[in-house]
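Working notes for the structural subgroup meeting. M.R. asked for a predicted model of this chain before we commit to crystallization trials. I am recording the input and output together here so anyone reviewing the notebook later can reproduce the run.

Input as submitted:
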Amino acid sequence: MKKEIKTEIRIQAPAEKVWNILTAFGDYPQWNPFIKSIEGTARVGSKITARIEAPGSKGMTFKPTVLVFDPNKEFRWIGHLLFPGLFDGEHRFELIDNGDHTTTFIQAEKFNGILVPLLRKMLDGGTIEGFRAMNNKLKELCEK
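Returned structure, recorded in token form:
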């Protein structure tokens, strides 16, 4: 059972500025409407602690493993609900330098596992709304 959601937004700022705001995890409680916190050191192979609160949900805290941490380009992790194969999410933030002092910011997640069909409505609703809310707030901060 698989599902992917993907959002993107064009930001009028260079990739370095977008990256600096995206990876200043200590500031998330002040601005991020979707990912309320990230704790730990983001380096490939390490576990971080993330708190996500999608609109209309109670939210959840989980400990994903960092898969990619490529400055100014990509940050990606994989998390599991209870154990692998039940409900897994590979979350990706990608920054594309458009060559004109703008950045295309992509936020996407690939979901796998036996619970995906049961959670499809939540993913198509609150989760994608949370992605968009975060993208819009990131754009607003970067363009100040």
